[in-house]
Amino acid sequence: MKLRAEDLGALARGAAVLGTGGGGDPHIGRLLAQEALKEHGAVEIVAVGDLPDDACVLPVAMMGAPTVMVEKLPSADQISVAVQTLAKYVGKTPTHLACIEAGGVNSTVPVIAAAQLGLPLVDGDGMGRAFPELQMVLPTLAGIEATPMSIVDEKGNRGVFDTVTNAWAERLARSATVDMGCSAIVSLYAMTGAEVRESFVAGTLSKCVTIGRAIEKAQRAHTDPVAAVVDELGGRLLHVGKVVDVQRRTTTGFARGDAAVDGLDASHGRLMVLRFQNEHLVAELDGTAVATTPDLIIVLDTESGEPITTEALRYGHRVSVLAAPADERWHSPEGIELVGPRYFGYDLDPIRALETV
């Protein structure tokens, strides 16, 4: 399978859906990837199950606050330099690149690196969605180390961390990212093909394209694009309304805040509050939590079905809020400890996307 420039619109749109509000602006990611594919040609996509055991797979991503990424783009070679810096440090030649998360920009950043370096890209990712901290991946649950990891800024500064735990990798890299202007490119979780098969969510890129095309098809046919996304994800519609308040701030390298959505149509008279840290983490309806991390909480434009990221939420937006199941491994005790509501400071047990509250 080849990923071509004409596939990027659907890929970025679907990735922004799975990104649950985070993962960076899909429009920016698509434009950057389009330029790379125009210059270097299509990228080969390889299924997780087809990776050789001894493959050297290097994920690459943008790290930082999505609010900053909108205005501070990576330089032309920053992304490939991050991969090359890690490869040099570990003394291995990469055979494949990968996405560490599904998100608008972080599903396209690896496309740019793959095009620039002429390497195939793995059809999968380390989460099946997006999470705000770099230890919050399924490879962590599988005992795979985040480091050595490289970090590169747009000015040409480069560094490598080799830490005692994945949580320490997040802590030190987050501090460096803040000093680099709250966004940087990282390459981390170097894995063999066997480790990728054990720890990745397979088929993520294909799923992103499928979701994106379902939205496009509904738009062309003037049918309900929100319903199309619900069907693709096996999720459910939680709330329909208008954004009446957004409290958002960029602190410690994250976009943190809350958004209030006043109900319309069947949701009239009800108020939903979304709580986010880059990604939506908790959805409360009339003061009661109805969906939480690790399952997906997704905000779409009600009319167009376009995903809306947390940094793009604005007063007056007419939105539909969905919940969809995460990869089941996130609901293990170890997964809940890593990404459950209490990790983020909410005194809640996890509420599954399809659970009736």
Automatic annotation (TrEMBL):
Residues in S-Me-THD-like C-terminal domain copies: 165-349
SUPFAM superfamilies in UniProt: CV3147-like
Domain S-Me-THD N-terminal: 6-162
Name of the protein in question: DUF917 domain-containing protein
Originating organism: Kribbella jejuensis
Lineage start: Bacteria, Bacillati, Actinomycetota, Actinomycetes, Propionibacteriales
